């Protein structure tokens, strides 16, 4: 049975437990950084293929981290909106040094 979280504040600590492996967090960071680059390329070129690159690289990095390093299922399978928000919060915390990557 899957726990349904009623707030992001309640969900985020759980999300971090699903990213305990440093290599998983690194894969997330690289994937999110690549997604940002893809979005920037889209804005520069207005070529919609870059949006596909952004989505594939963003989720691809996360899935590699979970399936190969963390050995669990991404939280986005059960909590997609909270997971999307949590990924950006985790990314920011890694970028600013509040969370090791």
From TrEMBL:
The chain crosses the membrane at residues 27-43, 49-69. Pfam families: Mpo1-like. InterPro entries: Mpo1-like. Signal peptide: none annotated. It comes from the Bacteria. Keywords: Membrane, Transmembrane, Transmembrane helix. This is DUF962 domain-containing protein. The lineage of its organism: Bacteria, Pseudomonadati, Pseudomonadota, Betaproteobacteria, Burkholderiales.
């Amino acid at each position: 049975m899957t726990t349904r979280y009623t707030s992001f504040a309640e969900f985020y600590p759980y999300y971090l437990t699903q990213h305990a492996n440093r290599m998983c967090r690194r894969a997330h960071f690289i994937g999110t950084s690549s997604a940002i680059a893809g979005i920037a390329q889209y804005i520069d070129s207005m070529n919609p293929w870059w949006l596909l690159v952004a989505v594939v690289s963003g989720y691809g990095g996360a899935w590699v981290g979970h399936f190969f390093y963390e050995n669990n299922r991404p939280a986005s399978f059960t909590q997609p909106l909270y997971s999307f928000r949590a990924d950006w919060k985790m990314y920011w915390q890694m970028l600013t040094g509040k969370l090791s990557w």
